[in-house]
Design goal:
alpha/beta, Undecaprenyl pyrophosphate synthetase, 6 strands, globular
Length: 245
């Protein structure tokens, strides 16, 4: 059973396996991505129901622009359709949409739909659904350093002010807590340039289940696995236990 007192505040998900799911069925890749939207709905609902505060989905990476143009167009079309069809349900479930990444690099119609969804859910106070779009962890850190350099030139900050905490404030996730749990589906064991700074002390859960088949039961299993682990942050187990008393 899930311990309701130990729900991770922020869960990040690398949704991998849509293309392979379709290939195993002799279907086109875009059908796998469409099926993946059903998994998104399931997991968003479950995360909201059990009290997760932030759910970040690696929706489209900066490297995904290298994919065939037809697949990129299909992905963008699926994103627009999903946002338009789900917006009212998200609003009624008190779910807020946020986005991180190079949003300006997305097609105009995607940007417009995304910004409308963000605006129309901005007053919701439940789960924050964070869509990582055209996102890359290395790119985000580079962008943060560039912004810091600009503020140094403007004398808003000095070199002596630079710290990990300050850098954190320049990332696109500045107002979002670091993930406590990362889930990756599809059987791969890497983080693929996702939230590189933010995952420093995150617990990882890897599964061979392809994303379209990932369900509420395995989502709960991942949380139960997370709750069984001890986070030490460089301390010994004895120190952690002493601090908890």
């Amino acid at each position: 059973m899930i311990d309701k007192n130990k729900i991770p505040a922020h869960i990040a998900v690398i949704m991998d396996g849509n293309g392979r799911w379709a290939a195993r069925r002799g279907e086109a890749r875009f059908l796998g991505h469409k099926k993946g939207v059903d998994a998104v709905k399931r997991i968003v609902d479950e995360a909201s129901n059990i009290g997760v505060q932030y759910l970040t989905l690696y929706t489209f990476s900066a490297e995904n622009w290298k994919r065939p143009e037809a697949e990129i167009k299909a992905l963008m079309s699926i994103l627009i359709t999903a946002l338009n069809s789900e917006i009212e349900r998200l609003k009624s479930n008190n779910i807020r949409i946020l986005a991180i990444g190079n949003i300006e690099s997305l097609p105009y119609d995607v940007q417009k739909t995304l910004r409308q969804a963000i605006k129309s859910t901005s007053r919701n106070t439940g789960l924050s659904l964070v869509l990582a779009l055209s996102y890359g962890g290395r790119q985000d850190i580079i962008c943060a350093v560039q912004k810091m350099n600009l503020d140094i030139r403007k004398k808003k900050i000095s070199l002596l002010d630079i710290s990990g905490e300050l850098l954190r404030n320049y990332l696109s996730t500045a107002n979002i807590p670091d993930p406590e749990l990362l889930i990756r589906t599809g059987g791969e064991y890497r983080i693929s340039n996702f939230l590189l700074w933010e995952l420093a002390y995150t617990e990882f859960y890897f599964t061979r289940t392809l994303w379209p088949d990932f369900d509420k039961e395995e989502f709960r299993e991942a949380i139960i696995e997370y709750q069984s682990r001890e986070k030490r942050f460089g301390k010994t187990s004895e120190q952690v236990k002493e601090n908890n008393y």
